[in-house]
Amino acid sequence: MSLDELYQDVILDHYKKPRCHGSILNPDCRSSLHNPLCGDTIDLMVSIQDGKVNDIAFSGHGCSISQAGASMMTELCKGKSVQEVKDLCKVFRSMMRGEKSSQEIQVLGDAVALEGVRRFSARIKCALLAWDALEKCMEQAEDLSCPTESKIPA
Ligand code: ZN
Q1: How far, in Å, is the centroid of ligand 1 from the Cα of 154?
Q2: Distance CA 59, CA 66 (A)
Q3: Which residues surround ligand 1, an ion (CB under 5 A)?
Q4: Helix (H/G/I), strand (E/B), else coil: 138
Q5: What is the per-residue pLDDT across 26-44, written as a single tens digit (0 to 9) for each?
Q6: For the chain, what are the domain ranges?
Q7: Partner of 135 at 20 to 30 A CA spacing, among 66, 79, 101, 144?
């Protein structure tokens, strides 16, 4: 399998027509990540309502795997609960380690197209970048729903 073959139709489609691209006014969670190995950047914004991803948007630049990957991830996670999104992060990471069956990864939707990337170790970081940003946002989302004791008035 050549690197060219990684650029399957579904990856190119997301790269050319990214879903959820842009920004959100007053996002609840935000994470900006950079992949120095390839020069990719992802700026992810999430708005949480009732424990769910009410809105999600990303901007950034870099290779098609990183940008298409962000598009696939945002489209998949919109409307899902924080817990569901965290579970999807785990499934995606397991897929990139080759630990999931082809049936188990179907929950990832279009993002299954990135499975072949794991054969190219230098590009795995590209595929994971959006999911790394998403996990950081979900940590922030949990802090929103679990106020620390110091915030509770005496
Ligand atoms: Zn890249």
Answers
A1: 49
A2: 11
A3: 38, 40, 62-63, 66, 126
A4: helix
A5: 999 999 999 999 999 999 9
A6: 3-144
A7: 101
